[in-house]
Amino acid sequence: MKIKFNLVMFLFLIVNGCTNSTAVKTSEPEIDLVSTFDVSLDMENQKNLESQFDSVLDPQNLDKWMKHMSSKPHHVGSPWSKQNAEYIAKHLKSWGFETEITTFDVLVPFPKIMNLELIEPNKVTLKLNEPALKEDATSSIKKDLLPGYNAFSSDGNVTAELVFVNYGIPGDYEELARLGIDVKGKIVLAKYGGSWRGIKPKVAHENGAIGCIIFSDPKDDGYVRGDVYPKGPYRMEHGIQRGSVLDMPMYPGDPLTPGYGATKDAKRLAIEDAPTIMKIPVMPISYADALPLLKALEGPVAPDNWKGGLPVTYHVGPGPAKVNLHLEFEWKLRTAYNPVGRIKGSVYPNEWIMRGNHHDGWAQGAADPISGMVSLMEEARAIGELLKTGWKPKRTLIYAGWDAEEPALLGSTEWVEHNRDEIREKMVAYINTDGTGVGFLGVGGSHSLEKFVNEVSAEVLDPVQNISLQERNRARLRVNGNKDAERKDLRIYPLGAGSDYTAFIHHAGVPSLNLGFGGESGGGSYHSIFDSYDHYKRFSDGDYKYGTTLAKVNGRLVLRLSESDILPFRFTNMVDNIATFIESNKKLAEDVTKKTDERNNLLDLKAFTIAGNPKKTYLPPQRLDEVPSFDFSSLDAAFVRLNASAWNYEKALSKLQKGSLSAAKKSEINNILKNVDQAMVSDGGLPRRDWFKNMIYAPGFYTGYGVKTLPGIREGLEQRNWNEVDTYIQEVAKALDRAAAKINMASNILSR
Q: 0.90 exceeded by the pTM?
């Protein structure tokens, strides 16, 4: 699934910065920061180990495996998805892993009836299908292929006038209200983009709409971007973006087993009682099918920033376009197959390092997810080659291929929920990949691992540019004028949701990373039948240079986590990022207050007009309640304590001599270090969604994949729930103090 607005946007977050870089000053003692490996590894032996690892990597394996695994549709519940799970398990076993396939029975609806018709002012039956292309060998496969649909839409047969709602996010409905347009009882037409797709029907329903249609506009995802498939990589006119619309910001995973594994004998909610299933029918269409709908709309001309790339004047409606949307689904449990391979640690068997990538796709799924899956497999094979030399990892290594990621992160979430207690006790870190492409290395994750990632990315070379991956990213930041380019360690972005790291970091509190290459791959095949081997070979990493480089990066992360005497968690980077989160939330509080005052003042003056057209007035909005003053002093004080703890740990570490700690003391320190991130989760979770327990990061309630930092505070401000702001200032302060206490424990052991 990945960050589903694609890897170009993935890199956009890195290049433009996803935090406010004008943060609270952190006090930095006069000490030299030591490498995460200076006191943890025998670097000569480690370099030899990594050199052996690199030497056996073979891009031809990635090509062979991708061609096989993407040769047929492989969504959860399909024969080829089960075959791919068995194929992965067979290979892991042959490489020396103890292998099993864990299964969960999860609810996934498949479509039975899908009809969409324009019935007024003229009648048009839409095509709703994607054509076979002679240039794409697998596009003609129909057996086991799911049509373009939105999983977890409700059943429904609705007829109503149409309203164009731009991207269908909350701000768009505010604009409609100012124009005097109400969507109650209407069917809305929304563009893909602007947020995760599941937010669009969620907000539509909250505003009274009875149906939702989503299309890919060529301005965002088609011929405006470049040549379309098969001439170029971009979405052709009949391409349809499939995808889930389950309300995953409430909780991901099986909607019938919230918070616990969907085993065969699990107690399940009734479907009608599952809160995350969408409440209105939702359907995705191509921009070829959207064109007659937009042509039939009248009403006000859409604001300039709403207009797309189709050859028509974009009107908002409502009507005279009227449509009938009829959807019925087969609501059934499907078996998800997770192949999982383990190599038991020789020194610390109860400390786990886990790698994961999903194997299910919406159709052929070559880029998403097989490109990432085959990179993981080659990484695992290279580790298997190291085993043949007599080497054994110090810590237990676990490699997984997740099923049913696309419908709602089902395979990974159920695995985490089912094994949560053991995961929280034993797991050191989870490293995720998903689809990968060509260009720049994107890294998101827990900021306790930021320094660690930078040290690896500074050593691995870009396969085309022959400079380090870190320096290539640094150059891009400089070109874009981002002052973080001069930071010693480049920032990694905080994780929201959208792939299989979600349950690990947000529910179990496990330090997590998500990595992939992008920024230069040809887009446009995403979640269509054209996400194929042929498309990937022509327009992405066809020689698998970057897929192999991704294996080098992740291989180093895994091997160094495995072999480190002291785990490479570092907290000065973490506190530096948390400082930016605190400052950006304070700035948001100021902005909310300022905008409230401005709006209320305008209301008093009755000065509402449509920009550029003073003859047309907006409907006057309601007066907003006043914003109270918020007391951040407890959070500021907790941050000061955490900052001091982080630098005291650095000081203690800088004085440590190799060989001065006993094995028992190392184990004690490591057990503390892996629990620092877990200390920042709260059992009570976030408002209205207690499944999300991390107080530092969460996917936004109204952004889906997009991250919210210090989410309890931020969303309280955004949604004007002032009591929540006060409550979560205190909750975050407590979380920082819990983390500081853990770090102090580790420092005290080092100092002794």
A: yes
